[in-house]
Amino acid sequence: MSNKSKITSAYQTAEKHALGEADDPHFVVLMMFDALLKSIKLFRENISAKKGHQLELKSDSFARALTIIYALQTSLDFEKGGEISENLFKLYEFSRQQLLSDMKSGNSAGSTDAIDVLTEIRDAWSQIGPKSVASEL
Questions:
Q1: 114, containing H or E segment
Q2: CA 37, CA 114: separation in Å to the nearest integer?
Q3: Residue 128 within any structural domain of the chain
Q4: Could you report the per-residue pLDDT of 6-62, keeping only the tens digit for each?
Q5: Biggest alpha carbon–alpha carbon distance for the chain
Q6: Which of 9, 11, 46, 68 is found 20 to 30 A from 80 (Cα to Cα)?
Protein backbone atom coordinates (compact mmCIF):
# COMPACT_ATOMS: atom_id res chain seq x y z
CA MET A 1 0.00 0.00 0.00
CA SER A 2 1.42 3.40 -0.98
CA ASN A 3 1.82 6.30 1.44
CA LYS A 4 -0.99 8.14 -0.35
CA SER A 5 -3.30 5.13 0.06
CA LYS A 6 -2.38 4.84 3.74
CA ILE A 7 -3.12 8.52 4.32
CA THR A 8 -6.41 8.30 2.43
CA SER A 9 -7.41 5.19 4.36
CA ALA A 10 -6.51 6.79 7.70
CA TYR A 11 -8.47 9.91 6.80
CA GLN A 12 -11.53 7.88 5.81
CA THR A 13 -11.35 5.88 9.03
CA ALA A 14 -11.08 9.04 11.13
CA GLU A 15 -13.96 10.63 9.22
CA LYS A 16 -16.21 7.58 9.78
CA HIS A 17 -15.32 7.59 13.47
CA ALA A 18 -16.13 11.31 13.79
CA LEU A 19 -19.44 10.88 11.97
CA GLY A 20 -20.37 7.97 14.21
CA GLU A 21 -19.64 10.01 17.31
CA ALA A 22 -21.69 12.89 15.91
CA ASP A 23 -24.73 10.61 16.25
CA ASP A 24 -24.04 10.39 19.99
CA PRO A 25 -25.85 13.32 21.69
CA HIS A 26 -23.60 13.09 24.75
CA PHE A 27 -20.49 13.46 22.60
CA VAL A 28 -22.01 16.37 20.64
CA VAL A 29 -22.81 18.29 23.84
CA LEU A 30 -19.33 17.59 25.20
CA MET A 31 -17.78 18.97 22.01
CA MET A 32 -20.04 22.02 22.26
CA PHE A 33 -18.76 22.68 25.78
CA ASP A 34 -15.16 22.31 24.63
CA ALA A 35 -15.72 24.73 21.73
CA LEU A 36 -17.55 27.15 24.02
CA LEU A 37 -14.79 27.20 26.61
CA LYS A 38 -12.15 27.64 23.91
CA SER A 39 -14.11 30.55 22.41
CA ILE A 40 -14.57 32.30 25.76
CA LYS A 41 -10.87 31.91 26.56
CA LEU A 42 -9.92 33.42 23.19
CA PHE A 43 -12.36 36.25 23.78
CA ARG A 44 -10.94 36.86 27.25
CA GLU A 45 -7.35 36.84 25.96
CA ASN A 46 -8.25 39.47 23.35
CA ILE A 47 -10.71 41.54 25.39
CA SER A 48 -8.64 44.72 25.15
CA ALA A 49 -8.05 44.42 21.39
CA LYS A 50 -8.89 47.58 19.51
CA LYS A 51 -7.59 46.82 16.02
CA GLY A 52 -6.08 44.26 13.72
CA HIS A 53 -6.08 40.48 14.00
CA GLN A 54 -6.78 40.47 17.74
CA LEU A 55 -9.96 42.54 17.28
CA GLU A 56 -11.19 40.07 14.67
CA LEU A 57 -10.33 37.15 16.94
CA LYS A 58 -12.12 38.86 19.82
CA SER A 59 -15.26 39.43 17.74
CA ASP A 60 -15.26 35.97 16.19
CA SER A 61 -14.76 34.17 19.50
CA PHE A 62 -17.42 36.35 21.17
CA ALA A 63 -19.96 35.56 18.43
CA ARG A 64 -19.08 31.85 18.47
CA ALA A 65 -19.49 31.68 22.26
CA LEU A 66 -22.90 33.36 22.15
CA THR A 67 -24.01 31.03 19.36
CA ILE A 68 -22.99 27.93 21.32
CA ILE A 69 -24.69 29.21 24.48
CA TYR A 70 -27.87 29.77 22.45
CA ALA A 71 -27.62 26.22 21.04
CA LEU A 72 -27.19 24.78 24.53
CA GLN A 73 -30.15 26.78 25.85
CA THR A 74 -32.45 25.76 23.00
CA SER A 75 -31.48 22.10 23.28
CA LEU A 76 -32.78 21.82 26.84
CA ASP A 77 -35.89 19.69 27.32
CA PHE A 78 -37.84 21.41 30.08
CA GLU A 79 -40.51 18.70 30.18
CA LYS A 80 -38.10 15.84 30.79
CA GLY A 81 -35.38 17.83 32.55
CA GLY A 82 -37.57 19.86 34.88
CA GLU A 83 -35.60 21.73 37.52
CA ILE A 84 -32.25 20.61 36.11
CA SER A 85 -33.09 22.13 32.72
CA GLU A 86 -34.26 25.33 34.37
CA ASN A 87 -31.05 25.62 36.39
CA LEU A 88 -28.88 24.92 33.34
CA PHE A 89 -30.77 27.56 31.39
CA LYS A 90 -30.09 30.08 34.17
CA LEU A 91 -26.39 29.19 34.25
CA TYR A 92 -26.12 29.53 30.47
CA GLU A 93 -27.94 32.86 30.68
CA PHE A 94 -25.58 34.00 33.45
CA SER A 95 -22.63 33.12 31.22
CA ARG A 96 -24.16 34.96 28.27
CA GLN A 97 -24.74 38.06 30.38
CA GLN A 98 -21.15 37.95 31.65
CA LEU A 99 -19.82 37.90 28.09
CA LEU A 100 -22.07 40.78 27.06
CA SER A 101 -20.94 42.79 30.07
CA ASP A 102 -17.28 42.15 29.32
CA MET A 103 -17.74 43.14 25.68
CA LYS A 104 -19.19 46.49 26.81
CA SER A 105 -16.71 47.16 29.60
CA GLY A 106 -13.52 45.70 28.15
CA ASN A 107 -13.02 43.89 31.45
CA SER A 108 -12.53 40.12 31.60
CA ALA A 109 -13.88 39.35 35.09
CA GLY A 110 -17.25 38.12 33.80
CA SER A 111 -15.62 35.85 31.24
CA THR A 112 -13.57 34.28 33.99
CA ASP A 113 -16.72 33.68 36.03
CA ALA A 114 -18.44 32.17 32.98
CA ILE A 115 -15.49 29.86 32.34
CA ASP A 116 -15.60 28.66 35.96
CA VAL A 117 -19.34 27.89 35.82
CA LEU A 118 -19.23 26.26 32.40
CA THR A 119 -16.17 24.19 33.27
CA GLU A 120 -18.04 22.71 36.23
CA ILE A 121 -21.00 21.83 33.99
CA ARG A 122 -18.70 20.40 31.31
CA ASP A 123 -16.83 18.27 33.85
CA ALA A 124 -20.07 16.96 35.32
CA TRP A 125 -21.36 16.19 31.82
CA SER A 126 -18.21 14.25 30.96
CA GLN A 127 -18.61 12.18 34.15
CA ILE A 128 -22.22 11.27 33.34
CA GLY A 129 -21.24 9.35 30.24
CA PRO A 130 -23.26 8.54 27.14
CA LYS A 131 -24.94 5.44 28.60
CA SER A 132 -26.46 7.38 31.50
CA VAL A 133 -27.70 10.13 29.19
CA ALA A 134 -29.19 7.67 26.70
CA SER A 135 -31.12 5.91 29.44
CA GLU A 136 -32.61 9.21 30.59
CA LEU A 137 -33.84 10.17 27.12
A1: helix 109-128
A2: 9
A3: yes
A4: 555 554 554 444 444 457 888 889 999 999 999 999 999 999 877 787 899 999 999
A5: 58
A6: 68
Question: Which pTM was predicted?
Answer: 0.77
96-122 b/e (C-beta count within 10 Å ≥ 16 → b): bebbeebbeeeebebbeebbeebeebb
> CATH no. for residue 122?
1.20.120.340
Question: φ and ψ at 48, to 5 degrees?
Answer: -90, 5
The pLDDT, as a whole number, for residue 18 is 44
**CA–CA dist 4, 125 (Å, integer):** 39
In a domain, 4, yes or no: no
Tell me if 20 is assigned to some domain.
no
Angle subtended at Cα 70 by Cα 114 and Cα 62, rounded to the nearest 5 degrees: 55
